[in-house]
Write a structure and sequence with these properties.
The protein is of the alpha+beta class. It has one domain: STM4215-like. Strands 1, 2, 3, 4, 5, 6 and 7 form a seven-stranded mixed β-sheet that branches. The longest helix has 17 residues. The two termini are about 15 Å apart. The mean pLDDT is about 95.
């Protein structure tokens, strides 16, 4: 059932664009790596969707990674923006069209950098939704 993922992805984008710090700092939020984006920006990674149904309700468990890209000189700005990403996701509305967000669990974060390229910061959460 892809509508849970589509609904959740739209909620992610709305939450990031509404967050005051992220709205001011990010050049955009994209469904994947954009061809020519200005740093810093967030790309929504490939989701993993699993069944989380009960006897009486359809449910989905979704792991949706966010990848923050930045070309800063050090990891301080990256760490700061990643913390704001976590705050924005924690504040997602519990009621979404057709779905109730039952819980959000932070799974992992990671920062990497190629010596010749930008910083990449991964923030991943597990979200469990029940159909309404």
């Amino acid at each position: 059932m892809t509508d849970a993922l589509i609904t959740l992805q739209a909620a992610f984008v709305a939450a990031l664009e509404a967050h005051p710090v992220l709205a001011a700092e990010l050049s955009g939020v994209y469904d994947g790596p954009p061809p020519r984006a200005v740093f810093p920006y967030v790309a929504i990674g490939d989701a993993l969707v699993s069944d989380w149904s009960t006897k009486t309700a359809t449910g989905r468990e979704i792991r949706l990674p966010l990848i923050l890209w930045d070309e800063g000189e050090n990891a301080e700005q990256m760490a700061d923006l990643m913390a704001h990403l976590e705050d924005a996701i924690a504040a997602l509305p519990r009621q979404m069209p057709g779905w109730h967000l039952a819980n959000i669990t932070f799974l992992r974060s990671m920062v990497v950098r190629d010596a010749a390229g930008p910083w990449a910061g991964l923030v991943e959460h597990r979200l469990r939704l029940l159909a309404t």
